[in-house]
Write a structure and sequence with these properties.
Rieske Iron-sulfur Protein; four-stranded antiparallel beta sheet; 184 residues; alpha+beta
């Protein structure tokens, strides 16, 4: 007799699987994929969610004051602004930058200078009006959306505050200088 799963009430009365038992894990195994999903959901629920897990990995953000003349920023033209990140624990100073984009209404966007694919440094290209990463040919629109290549998501944005002429961005605590890339 073939080893098939029968519902209660099906099959010959002598078949032990037809005795009215609603669920027997030995007869109805959970498929591997479903088990992996259940394990992942349980882990995330126990840890407070994916956001809490990822936030714990980066540490608290570090506020950096940028040296930028807001009047010199042109609407819709990205400008890379360098900074030095000093770790809160008094540790090493890390060179970095952010790309600022001034919107028509005067608001600013601050982009992480690392490509979302390989954490490489990318550049703005006037030709085609896009950000280009030379590591794996990733390309992003002015709004950060992926246009081409392997990046899995849009460019990451950093929280930004403008108070008078002071511009501050919150850089992730685990920030590292981007990898060098080929010329875009």
């Amino acid at each position: 007799m073939a080893d098939t799963i029968r519902r209660p009430g099906e099959g010959p009365a002598s078949d032990p699987r037809a005795d009215g038992v609603a669920f027997d894990p030995n007869l109805t195994p959970i498929p591997r994929r479903r088990m992996l999903v259940l394990m992942g959901v349980t882990t995330l629920a126990a840890s407070g969610g994916l956001g809490a897990v990822l936030a714990g990995c980066s540490g608290p953000p570090v506020t950096v004051t940028l040296d930028v003349d807001l009047g010199a920023l042109e609407v819709g033209v990205p400008k890379e602004i360098p900074f030095t990140l000093v770790k809160a624990d008094g540790g090493a100073s890390i060179p970095g930058s952010t790309w600022l984009v001034k919107k028509a209404n005067g608001d600013l966007i601050s982009y992480d200078p690392r490509c979302t694919h390989g954490l490489c440094h990318y550049l703005w290209s006037e030709e085609g009006a896009r950000f280009k990463c030379g590591c794996h040919e990733g390309q992003f629109a002015l709004d950060g959306a992926v246009l081409a290549g392997p990046p899995p998501r849009p460019l990451d944005r950093w929280p930004i505050r403008v108070t008078g002429s002071t511009v501050e961005v919150d850089v992730p605590g685990n920030f590292q200088t981007p990898k060098e890339s080929l010329p875009a």
